[in-house]
Amino acid sequence: MAKAIRFHEVGGAEVLRLETVQVGDPGPGQVRVRHTYVAVNFIDIYFRTGQYPLELPNGLGSDAVGVIEAVGEGVTDIKVGDRVGYLLGPQGAYSEVRVMPADVLIPLPDGVTDRTAATLIMKGMTAQYLFRQVYPLKGGETILYHAAAGGVGLIACQWARALGVTMIGTVSTDEKAEVAKAHGCTHVIVSSRENIAKRVRELTGGKGVEVVFDSVGKDTLEASLDSLQVRGALVSNGTSSGPVLIDTRVLARKGSIWVTRPAMAHYATPRSHMLEMARELFDLVLAGKIKGEPGQTFALAEAADAHRALESRKTTGSTVLVP
User: Name one GO molecular function term (predicted).
Assistant: First the structure.
């Protein structure tokens, strides 16, 4: 038996319940993982509110790190005692212990602590596929990145600096601006008191940026489009403020803008590809170019409080649960 967060209906954070669940032995191709840290991601809110539907009742969370307790038949590349993380697979990471398919697990290298890995598995891999696959950055580009002081944002700041990319980041407060700058963001726009597109044009000599990475969605769409140069690209990688609805005629008027809505699952599979993404991320961590520590820590039983903090934009960096 173990404790896990479950929800029986969609809604606000109050629908999250701490329950006792049965955890069996792993079957063929499976392992049992005892979690040390569980990451909280904005996508979890999408599932909780029904924006991304699930069959209910269900668990929540897709991103955690821990230690292998048991392995099932046919699992040969992972053994009891190994430290692992994961970001794909079924919902249910908000738990003390769970059984998982072995083929979604990522071995953690020596020199990367569980606490650091918990901040980096999902968020660092997100930065990897955005910067290295969706719109491959080679160095020298100027980009606009919304929510630069968020969990992915702070990793993106460091990755951009490591690549030699000029990153213009948006944040909601002056305090978050200082955090983003400290992590390598070249220029920071405080969206609560500055016009984003106007400031981007000033910083780029009127030209605009080559690409915008926008995880905010509805509230920043217009500013994102107005910040792009001709034939620029909008990477819509989230909708925290609401869904993005685009009239394609506007894209033509704004300069023949390209738009994509990427998803991790399409970039992190097959497993060999996922492991290569992780290798690139952890190499930068071990080289000291990317650092990750939770900005906020909550007990597993406080998952609802963690969601409220994330939704209210009161968090900085990554948020984790401790089982």
Answer: zinc ion binding
The tens digit of pLDDT for each residue in 181-217 reads 999 999 999 999 999 999 999 999 999 999 999 999 8
pLDDT above 90 (res 96): yes
d(CA 256, CA 261): 17
Amino acid at 109: P
Per CATH, the homologous superfamily of domain 2-119+268-322 is Medium-chain alcohol dehydrogenases, catalytic domain (3.90.180.10)
The DSSP code for 108 is P
Q: Where are the alpha helices (DSSP H) in 81-143?
A: 114-129
Q: Report the distance separating Cα 106 and Cα 245, nearest Å.
A: 36
Cβ atoms 121, 87 nearer than 8 A: yes
How many other β-carbons are positioned within 10 Å of the β-carbon of residue 171? Answer: 26
> Model-level pTM greater than 0.85?
yes
Residue type, 167: M
Q: What is the pLDDT of residues 279-291, one digit of tens each?
A: 999 999 999 999 9
CA distance 86 to 142: 31
